[in-house]
Amino acid sequence: MELELETGRQHQIRLHMEHLGHPLVGEKVYANTGASGASAVRRQMLHAWRLAFPHPLRRGVIQVEAPLPEDFERLLAKLRRVQPRTETRRRNPLR
After folding, report:
1. C-beta contacts of 84-92 below 8 A and 24+ residues apart
2. Domain boundaries, the chain
3. For 25, which DSSP code?
4. What DSSP letter does each residue of the chain carry, written as one string?
5. I want to staple 44 with a disulfide (CB 3.0 to 4.6 A). Which of 16, 26, 56, 69 is the partner?
6. Taking the model in full, what pTM does it have?
7. Helices (H), 1-95
8. Number of Cβ atoms within 10 Å of the Cβ of 25
9. Which pLDDT tens digit goes with each residue over 43-80?
């Protein structure tokens, strides 16, 4: 799933996903059910693979990308064995 933040509010993704009935895997604070997979992983499965923001002094945008952590890759490999992924239009390392 790909989400785009509109503000930098702390906990925004976690709270909104829980409200929609899709808590983050590993979420222990806001998840109301055991469906979050908290017992299966040691941390939240939330990763910013790309960040972009205006440079504070120069014109232009600073953009950085980060590969998925190894524990994400392992979990995704397990999940893909259970259910095949669907193709999407945008490039995202989570897919």
Report:
1. 90/2, 92/2, 92/49
2. 1-46, 47-95
3. T
4. -----SS--TTHHHHHHHHTT-PPTT--SS--SGGG-TTT-SS-----SEEEEE-SSSSSEEEEE-PPPHHHHHHHHHHHHHS-----SS--TT-
5. 26
6. 0.57
7. 12-19, 70-82
8. 19
9. 888 888 888 889 999 889 999 999 999 988 888 888 88
